[in-house]
Amino acid sequence: MKKSGILNRHLAGALAALGHGDEVLICDVGMPIPPGPRLVDLAFRAGVPSFAEVLDGLLDELVVEGATAAGEIREANPEAARLLTARLPGLELVTHERLKERTATARLVVRTGEARPYANVLLRCGVFF
Prior knowledge:
This protein is of the alpha/beta class. The protein is 31% helix and 22% strand. The radius of gyration is 14 Å and the shape is globular.
């Protein structure tokens, strides 16, 4: 058994299969999940695990070359907006409807237990060299 890093075998395997340009959606419990992308549902109860915990864990594991979130996050969830702008310089903001459309092309969806609005971000994988 692994003693560090991501222990969830479904998530660890899904991350290992990602390549350059693949997209990963980290989302709250309210985000509609389209058919197609692989889903790893980490939600245990409301707020567990938090959006911040999952984001930080994935940022430890992935090289990210771009990120997109809904512009509505600035007013509806300022705490999550501050978190994303601090962790993801150059964060692109689009409408929530556009973000939902783009989730259809994501390779992986990671659902958190977050129960606050707009705690969603689409990460584009980069390469480590």
